[in-house]
Amino acid sequence: MTIEIGVVGPHDLVDDVAATCEEQPGVTARRLHYDHESQAPAIVEAHAGQVQAWLFTGVVPYTLAREANLPHRPAVFVDYTGATLLQAAVRLLRDGHDVTRMSIDTVTGADVAGTFGEAGLPVDRVRSLPYRSGLGSDDVVAFHRRQRKAGADVAVTCISSVYEVLRHEMPAFRLAPSNHSVRTALRQLMLHVGSQAQEDAQIALGLANLSDGDDGLLKEVAALGGTVARFAPDTWLIVTTRGPLHDATGGFTALPMLRRLADRHETVQIGFGLGRSAAEAENLARRALSRARRIGPTTAVLSLRGETDIVLESTTPTPAPAEVNLAVIAQRVGLSVPTLLRLREVRTAVGDEPLTSREVADQLRVQQRTARRMLHRLELAGLAERTGNLASGTSGRPLTLYRLTL
């Protein structure tokens, strides 16, 4: 099986990154260049149906695409820390620059300190500007100009548009991902693709309790690529798979067919279950339907393994006002209002910085597996997003980074 990956980035990086990807058997790369990082979302949207996964040449185009609610397939970015940063330091030293007096954007101070610390380089005069949502290229250029006046010897940037400005004003170096970093990102992406394929093949069973026959249900289920069969006098069995259900519900957030069926029936209660087997999916669907019946006459619930239940909205949610009704969110994600308030306090404290499950566990004083379960529920409800991985510091698996949006 051949997997086509969309490689998104500036002209001078895409070809090299794509070539490294194509060293992997069974991988082809579609080269998608841009002139400015702001074009990344439009490129992803234009080619969404042509690739199975996305690899961004850096965190900036990746973040811009995610903020535009794209992409809808597995996606990762090449990390510029570790080997990439160390390789850049060696080149700068060779060219006579003082790497202990530099300004660097996009990379966090902790990453710089970690990499330079291993190399025995001091960082007390290194100034960094981590990338965050809303940070534009003009802001980054202004940062480097300030640091130049303060004594920085060289400006190191991960952003092509910033480099094009700075190289005419001061010593500037453009960070380019090392082959090792690209291969690491590709391995991570291939794991995501394999996991996604397994998840999309999961069985999704739905139990629909309708008050007036199956009027309209066949048409709605056809859009899910599924089938319908009578399960009980007023209940119908919906059979589909995870992939179509995920797409139809906007990532397990809303079920528009619920509103349309409510125009035909006084009672529309639907419970979906996702499982690795038909028996598991049916048990979860029964649980979901039971909860839907307790909530109200027009309700849809999705039940997952691990005691996770998600109440699906009847329409695609509009952007929430500043003060969101936490009681509604609590009902949707199966967490208590006090827990959501504490999570919101954590989000406020860190701003746009991502968190690991370990950090959330420490902040909430719960076990790490409990924090992972909370973050998983929030992610499914669209209230947290994965932004990458962080080495755990042990022989265990890397910690997933989440950005809270609730």
TrEMBL record:
Highest taxon above the source species: Bacteria
UniProt-listed InterPro entries: WH-like_DNA-bd_sf, WH_DNA-bd_sf
Protein name: HTH domain-containing protein
